[in-house]
Amino acid sequence: MGRGTLIMQGYLAHDEHMEVRIRQYGNNHFLTVKEGSGLIRRETEVEISPQQFLALWASTEGRRLEKIRSLVNYGSYQVEVDRYQGDLEPLLVAEVEFSSVEESESFEKPDYFGQEVTDVEGYKNLFLAIHGIPDDPALDYQIGALPYLFRGGRLHLVIVMNSAQSRWIIPKGQPEPGMSRHDVAVMEAMEEAGVIGSCRPGLHVTCQRKGEKTLHIYPLKVTTVLKKWPEMDWRKRAVLPLHKALKMISDPELSECIQRLASRLHG
Fold first, then answer.
1. Do 124 and 157 share a domain, yes or no?
2. Is 182 helix (H, G, I), strand (E, B) or coil?
């Protein structure tokens, strides 16, 4: 396939019908409005200058991805093979563009193609940029909240003790049917840490820990610290400056993930 071309892609805005992204593709820069989904989509793309790209890039924080694209000829078709980088490794996705739905339905895919993910929400670039690689239903994972607030201009974190009262952690729990990951994070923060707030859109880290379930952590900006909360009788709570909170957490993988996410928070 060759070395391919690096693509840096970030999202400025999105809703269920449309997304607005910017992309650096090699030495070229583009702003794209994408409408629709699945087999039928409409894209409007304009080339922008490197300076315009850099000016807009800051607004895509938490909604970015990088991938290396290689072009492979297959009969009369050209296959775009994307090797995702960073937290999205080792994901590999191939895409073929068709002129009609009928043409796509008659296409016989090569043997090296894997699972069809055209209509799978978790493999859309927007989802990958925000949430990372989707979870295999056969795998177990947890959702964590990183409650934070600013006191005297300094970042503080809210941490809790585990139910055994043996170590400091962050609020976390299992996925809940019918609830988004953000909603689960908000619920766990209230129940375990006694804080109320909202999740920062687009910010998230995936934490892999030895012998533990994969943990998806979402930062939660605290608006209220409750005096009484559901699990106060068996969990201690601490509101500490970032460096002190990190010292209290003994799990090195969790501490590193928290530090990585905290570095992206601003007052």
1. no
2. helix
